[in-house]
Fold this protein.
Amino acid sequence: MTNTTSFRALLRTFAILALFITSIAHAQLRVEIAGVGANQIPVAIAAFGNENIAPHSVSEIIKADLLRSGYFKIIDTGTVLTENSQVDLADWKTRGADALVVGSVERLADGRYDVKYRLFDTMKAAQLSSLALAATPNFIRVSAHKVADDVFEKLTGIPGAFATRIAYVTKAGKEYRLEIADSDGQGNQIALRSNEPIISPSWSPDGTKVAYVSFENRKPVIYVQDLVTRQRSVAANYKGSNSAPAWSPNGKQLAVALSRDGLTQIYIVNTDGSGLRRLSRSSGIDTEPQFSSDGQSIYFTSDRSGAPQIYRMSVNGGDARRVTFGGSYNISPRISPDGKSLAFISRREGKFQLYIQDLTNGQEQRLSDTVKDESPSFAPNGRYVMYATKSGQNGTLAVASVDGRIKQSLSTQAGDIREPSWGPFMK
Amino acid sequence: MRTLSTALILSSAVLLAACSSTKLNDDKAPVEDRSGADARSVGTVDASSDPLNDPQGVLAKRSVYFDYDSYVVQPEYQQVISNHARYLKANPNRKVIIQGNTDERGGAEYNLALGQKRAEAVRRSLTLLGVSDTQLEAVSLGKEKPKALGNDDAAWAENRRADIVY
């Protein structure tokens, strides 16, 4: 027993060292939570049996995800418990846990890792859920996130968004990069490297493609890139500037902002670049279009009234109705997945801050305490908004829960992060 | 008497010969020599005489600066625009891209559109002076490529700018 413990301790040390070394090689995001919700569910999470055989510790990822969500208080069981272990649920209840998570990792003959887990409710003294997920080694983190999603959903009733991905732009020296990472900022991969800026990444609804604006041609041009095949095509390169791509819910069209007719206005185009149709006709700037979740309306930024505000119009064009009335500068509209809330950036007294507005009654609430906020993006479960902000001179990412109670900051060890976009649910 | 007529005939012949002498020379001149000399001749093009490449010339100034929240070309920059208008009209094969910029305050996409207004203002001024639209493209870099990296009024003023790029 002692040998196993010290061997495991040694392995842990090596794992931590390896993580440290990895963190220097890649710009990993670290999470700090400031301010938590009042009613947190206490969950005991065991180390998973055999989990050190895998490249990443599954139970550590589950703990970090649930802790970061702000909905849970994590109790470390201090021991390994597998899905076959005898568990005394009444005992865990007296130890203060409402729920218990146990599991194991096994290497299959074909080289994949099989993650098994069980979730127990200590109050009901019953099993709530179980999963078995087999995946290749490079997807072991996704398996851990999927377990966390299952725990989250079974205990809160809300779908978890841990097994989702984010896209963002980072600048290191003279190089700009479009990177894709897990929702916790881990496992970043580079989708595009460029010597010129990249802005406005936008995920396709199926999560396999990203549209973005690249300045590699000395002017802004919209590209659509397939993340898997690396193929990319130009969606819009008309005379003037081409920017602000937003996917339609059916994944077939993009709403875009083009200056081809002089002033920046909103158009719709098929993702292959065909079928261009002008949508807005104002004498001001119309930009930042966003489809509503039913695909029937477009929310957008317009300064037709003299200063930028957010409006809504039919996807067939026509009259636009103003949506924001607080303050004199409201930009970057984003619609929640259920269509009921609008996240946006408002400048008040010189501060650029993240706000959320209830579209049914117009009530607004400030979500951030930082003052240089940009580029909001809803999690696909609608509970959080990720956005870019500045910590001193350095660009960082932050996350706020939509009720304003939970604030997280994701800070990098190197480089400058901006333009986040939260990807969709995927299998 | 006969001497005079002979002289006349002779002199006419000489004259006629003289008149036709160039032609005769053409027919008789060896072709290779003449073409060899032409293929080796070198004519001089003076690029330094292209006003665009003169670092001291008026065309070296290619930036128009704007006040905060403004998209109007101020009178002090009209001269820069007329200089380039004159050059572009004289050189109809030249094209320029006009890149508009903003300072760092505000969102990326809205600032892209504001920068576009600056580029467009310069473009329109050039067309009003007679430059053909086919020689011009107005685009924006928004706040993405600031020339001055500070966070003060001086840096902001330097970045509120449209550049004429050949």
